[in-house]
Design brief:
By secondary structure, the protein is α/β, with parallel strands linked by helices. It has a domain at 94-166. Helix content is 36%, strand content 24%. The protein is built from 10 helices and 10 strands. The chain has helices at residues 46-53, 76-82, 99-106, 113-117, 123-135, 151-163, 181-194, 207-213, 231-235, 238-245; strands at residues 8-17, 20-30, 35-39, 61-66, 69-70, 84-87, 169-173, 199-203, 216-221, 224-229. Strands 6-7-8-3-9-10 form a 6-stranded mixed β-sheet, with helices on both faces. It has a 4-stranded antiparallel β-sheet with strand order 2-1-4-5, covered by helices on one side. It is globular, with a radius of gyration of 19 Å. 37% of the residues are buried. The site of adenosine-5'-diphosphate has 10 residues, from helix 1. Residues 17, 22, 40, 42-48 line the site of adenosine-5'-diphosphate (ADP). It comes from Thalassospira mesophila.
Length: 247
């Protein structure tokens, strides 16, 4: 029998900062079309894990394989080209441009200078921008300046700017922080659309949102996996209860 192929396989991953092991012999496997949520107390190593995957931080030990390709030796832009997109907590949209222009600018144009210079607003780009705008609930705001969007709409726009690059794996750091309840629900809807074509790793503190989206939850503590499984399972795990209520 064939062993199962994971989209992302992390094995024995560690990183130390001045002798402190922020991530300590971590193993994590993510399947295709999965929404994996990483939770854990502050300082557990959640952000560092995403930093390691996207090449912002170099691992001291271990491997990160994505579609069979080793990522730990690649540079950040090479990891992006391999199909890994990362959204940070603060939106990095262009406030002076419209929604359309923000999405258009993120459309992959090939890597050559000539490709970038000869870029035209052709039908392919327009169709793709409209398709993404619909997914992120901004179809009626294509000509709106990004500056006047709500906080939630700005977060969606940034997700759209990643989606238009068609990453296979999307990593989101607290996507619903600061959102209203209705924006949070729509974000859950968006993620459930996204995973038909992509896989998603989300760091999240909002447990209602986690319940709405998580296929599987990984609880990190002191740079290690403390517990993993369905939301119900990790919530009733005595080790998890201890960590969350024990201090
Ligand atoms: P979380 O996202 O779960 O709150 P982090 O991954 O941000 O946790 O941090 C894990 C630990 O690693 C923390 O103790 C943090 O202070 C430390 N850390 C993270 N990045 C660095 C860095 N660049 N230099 C030194 N220490 C760091």
């Amino acid at each position: 029998e064939q062993p199962k192929e994971f989209l992302l396989s992390i094995e024995g991953l560690s990183v130390s900062f001045d002798g402190f092991k922020a991530v300590n012999d971590l193993s994590l496997y993510v399947e295709e079309n999965e929404i994996r949520v990483i939770i854990g107390p502050n300082g557990a190593g959640k952000t560092t894990v995403l930093d390691l995957i996207c090449g912002r931080t170099r691992a001291t030990e271990g491997s990160i394989r994505f579609r069979g390709k080793e990522l730990t030796k690649l540079r950040e832009h090479e990891i992006v080209h391999a199909g890994v997109g990362r959204k940070f907590q603060n939106p990095s949209i262009y406030e002076d441009l419209t929604v359309f222009e923000n999405l258009e600018l993120s459309f992959p144009r090939g890597r050559s200078v000539l490709g970038a210079l000869t870029f035209r607003r052709d039908a392919e780009v327009i169709n793709r921008v409209e398709e993404i705008a619909e997914m992120i609930f901004l179809k009626d705001h294509l000509e709106t300046d990004a500056a006047i969007l709500s906080h939630g709409q700005k977060q969606w726009l940034e997700i759209g700017m990643l989606l238009i690059q068609s990453p296979e794996l999307l990593m989101l750091d607290e996507p619903v922080a600061g959102m209203s309840v209705s924006e949070r629900l729509k974000t859950a809807e968006l993620l459930n659309t996204i995973i038909k074509k992509h896989s998603v790793i989300v760091i999240e503190h909002d447990m209602k949102f986690v319940e709405d989206i998580a296929h599987r939850v990984t609880v990190l503590h002191q740079g290690k996996v403390l517990s993993e499984g369905s939301m119900e399972r990790v919530q009733s795990d005595p080790k998890v209860i201890e960590v969350y209520l024990g201090h």
